[in-house]
Design brief:
The structure is a homotrimer. Chain A is about 30% helix and about 20% strand. Chain A is built from eleven helices and 16 strands. In chain A, the strands form three sheets. A seven-stranded antiparallel beta sheet of chain A has the order 1-10-9-4-3-2-5. A six-stranded antiparallel beta sheet of chain A has the order 11-16-15-14-13-12, sandwiched between helices. Chain A has a three-stranded antiparallel beta sheet with strand order 6-7-8, with no helix packed on it. In chain A, strand 7 and strand 8 form a beta hairpin. At the A-B interface, helix 2, helix 6 and helix 10 of A face helix 1 of B.
């Protein structure tokens, strides 16, 4: 909390869950989708913002977006804008994009490079670390050390930048351990952005996650994705032939990976279990094989860019990472695709999809966007359309929570349980 | 109420009228227009939705829009979307456009034909009657008979489709009797849609109705309409000459209609009395003569399409029907024009105007849209503009309810009384 | 209050300040910018409307916009629309743009000339003074004298038209005295509108005023303005050279003005003190010299139109006027620029900038818009951009009120004190 923050805001944060929300939580039918109110009610949306988005660790972007001192990008959560900037000491900081004088937004561009941060209104000058360097025209007795830009917490793990707006953020160590170990070989610190696409998806952020947490919808909706992956098969439809196929792929990959020092961590069909409310697991990563013939998540399975990171062969399967409430990543041997969510109202979510390649790869020479983008661009856009249809439906008074498939939607239920637990606690 | 509906919603429905609304109703000055709050207040709009729109019988469309099994159209009330579909048994049903699994909107198109209703998300399959036929991937113990699509009540009368979202809808028998008798000769079941135009009118739905309930505004605003009709004349301005004119028209038509078995039911100038809050009359229909020289409500009075229904001669005057809260129709010998309202917020109404001709009439051969449309398109659009101007004015703090003309606005007062009675009762 | 106004509205007006607003006011840190809530909260915006905008005197426009009987323009405050019309008696009246019958907006055009005001709905006819002249179709016993258009208070001072929506407006005499004396020589009554530009500025109206109340931002943002004026210099940066410059300009001008009977009222650098909450000063005017070489606030300082009003030489410096909550004006020898604000939501302000020249000046012959407009068009648009940036920043939870410069922002503090005092009192 900032010194000057009004008591009104403090109260907002400390109050108990309103009775009607507590009652909705208590009445949720286990194993069923959430009640309508969770997907459109303004009060619940505000609680989501307070108790999930302003409390958790948010993926902001990749450190390779700001390689040099003074490089920055901005990101917005709720009404807050954050400048994520690399300092002269090479450290990455999260500075609130708000002048300490009269509150003017400092950076209007979404990314750039600055020697100093200068307010466009009265030219107060801040350093790349957020310290107030000068404020011509103010009284001499003003103590400049009291007017550094407000900051948020930052953690960097293997090139992934996380920001927390919480005054006392929750633990990051366990996540750091898991993500660090799994992400290291992918080489995110020696990567570059090949493409970013921003979407406004007209659906509550939880619908976007619920869509991400199952592959029940993949057969009919993701013709590209299912050719390369095993996770749309589940206990009820993993035939002997499929079992043999994945066993073969695991065995083959395990041999190769052992030689490269890469761990195999998900050897079955179906999706890995995530999240886990009881054990406070909001982060996870695993490596799993691709289907025979697929070296990369591309339309034809062929490698489309130079090998990334520590990889010496293309046969590394696929690395998958996800952190709640706003990040997932699918990485192949030659490229990685990160997805970042930001809430934009009870019925809208901003989604950024980021394609990364090795930092020295040159477009048109080493890779072609026409081959790099389609697999995940199509798969993503197929999902956004589904989510928007679902939002339309759950708006209806006639919507009643329905049952989850025990075979295919166990992770949707896990997500919903994680969400309700977070919403219930401060 | 649906089984899974939250207690929160139940409470919404059962609570008493809020004190401030009850007080506004109590303070309404008889014979005067309503207070400003009724035309823009969010709370009153929500009460309108609950107590009028979700309780009453809504005109949805014409049965000739869905002649074959599997044909459907959708319509939206508030956040609800309804699929109006003809089944294999030729029965018309109103199915909520919401998958029973996780709530996805099933039909995104506004009309079409389907063999089965298949959810785009996880491919749950429903029959044309709304029964769940299959849900691949779900646990075997799930009882499919419990997951039919939620339905709304439907009544069909002579090709007019009515839907009620109320769990226990009010009586339809009396309306069925009146509309059935009067609509039969027009032949709506053997009709086809020649044209539909959708409008967003930036005015509260009640202003649209109040405009419909008087012809005080016709002289200056509807130059086309007044040439063909007698209802803009009232007790104060029906001259001896006009009296003679309508008497002649009535006599002439009565003779002809008697021969055709058609009843004359409105023989005076001025509009028939409607609605009637005391007698719970929310529906009415009447036949009245057109001015000498007018065979049809067209720009020059000439017949512009083949005779509809049972008519054997063009001299059938004009049939008028209306049902609250959302339908009116003006029918001539050769075509019919239906108007359907749907509320879209405290200050907006969606209006659909539908032109119908005989089902075997062929455009460009048997009728020309340039001759068919203008009379009611112009008259309708003239009204929408007036309603929007009135909305702008009643928004003002300076608006004070004004007196209705005893000669010309008796039906506006009747409408307001009907509305306030409905609003006051559950 | 109108007779028919609902008790609900009366209550709104009489209630005390809500506790949370009173608490915010009590907690405001002296000498610092206001808390975030004042710039975006819906409840505070509504209080601003009630206690400032509906209570004060609002600049509506210039009398030269409606020189002839029947000429009118409309202006909107909140949901109210006012017709400002010149009557047959040449008096200017403010008539509510709402028919006394059923509330229809009477004039849809923003300006025009009318012999009678005729309601487009049912043709009730009002005179240019707002009296109901006829209402064909109504019952004979209706007393037309009871149905004049509702009016608002009007004051005209030297061609400036002020309107108050308050039933008992506050005193205008002191403002009339000051504005009348200072505005007279400019000749606003013998002026004409050369150009009007309307802007929607996405910032709370108070941010627009705070921007207007200091020239701390001028050096970096207004390269044109600072060449012509002395007010961006303050106690901390008025060097000996600048002191000499302004003293020279004052002396030179005083001599000339004395000869013309024009008073010198602001002889220093920096801005004149305004407003003054303690003395209830919401209006002020002063004349001050321009920089050597500037005869007019134009890009090169040259005169660009014929001398206005009583001026016989171009060396009259610049006349500045401002009235809260919605008007300021900068006048040169040859043209005048008026700015009118109207609130359009918690985060939006409608701004109209009006350029005036002598009434007999002919475009293209006596003046060229390309030379007349740029100085104030650029300066205004530079400010709107700043205000929008500031609004973005103060929306953030991380915004904390910052200190005002004692040298340069004394008037911003005066404005904030005036505002809070008005907000606190009925």
């Amino acid at each position: 909390m900032f010194d000057g923050e009004s008591s009104h805001v403090q109260e907002e944060r400390q109050h108990n869950l309103p009775d009607r929300v507590a009652s909705l939580i208590a009445n949720r039918r286990p194993g069923h989708s959430l009640q309508r109110e969770f997907y459109g009610d303004e009060e619940i949306y505000n609680l989501d913002i307070e108790r999930i988005w302003r409390s958790g660790w948010l993926f902001a972007g990749h450190s390779c977006q700001i390689p040099k001192a003074g490089d920055y990008f901005t990101f917005e959560l709720d009404a807050d804008s954050i400048i994520v900037m690399r300092g002269d000491d090479r450290k990455i900081r999260a500075l609130h994009n708000v002048c300490r004088h009269r509150g003017t937004r400092l950076c209007s561009e979404s990314a750039g490079t600055l020697a100093r941060i200068i307010c466009p209104y009265h030219q107060w000058v801040y350093g790349r670390d957020g310290r107030l360097l000068s404020c011509r025209g103010m009284q001499e007795e003003l103590d400049k050390t009291e007017f550094s830009l407000h900051t948020a917490q930052v953690r960097e793990v293997e090139g992934l930048i996380y920001v927390s707006l919480a005054p006392q953020p929750s633990d990051f160590n366990a996540a750091n351990e898991v993500l660090g170990t799994m992400a290291r070989p992918q080489g995110f610190e020696q990567a570059r952005i090949a493409k970013m696409i921003d979407y406004t998806v007209n659906a509550n952020w939880k619908l976007v996650w619920e869509n991400n947490r199952e592959c029940y919808h993949c057969n009919a909706n993701h013709p590209q994705y299912i050719k390369a992956n095993f996770d749309h098969y589940n206990a009820d439809d993993t035939t002997a032939r499929i079992k043999e196929e994945i066993a073969t792929a695991v065995t083959r990959n395990e041999k190769e990976w052992a030689a490269c020092g890469l761990a195999v961590s998900h050897k079955q069909t179906g999706m890995t279990n995530f999240p886990d409310a009881d054990r406070d697991i909001w982060f996870s990563a695993n490596r799993t094989p691709l289907v025979e013939g697929y070296l990369s998540e591309t339309m034809d399975g062929q490698q489309v860019a130079p090998l990334m990171g520590d990889y010496t062969k293309p046969t590394v399967g696929t690395l998958r990472m996800r952190t709640l409430p706003n990040f997932w990543n699918h990485s192949s041997c030659d490229h990685a695709v990160s997805t970042r969510l930001l809430p934009a109202g009870p019925r809208a979510t901003l989604v950024r999809v980021i394609w990364l390649v090795r930092e020295d790869a040159v477009e048109a020479k080493d890779y072609d966007l026409k081959k790099l983008l389609p697999f995940w661009q199509l798969t993503s856009e197929q999902d956004w359309e589904i989510c928007e249809n679902q939002q339309q439906g759950v708006n209806s008074r006639a919507y009643t929570p329905g049952p989850y498939s025990l075979y295919k939607e166990y992770n949707v239920d896990s997500f919903v349980c994680w969400y309700l637990k977070k919403l219930s606690s401060l």
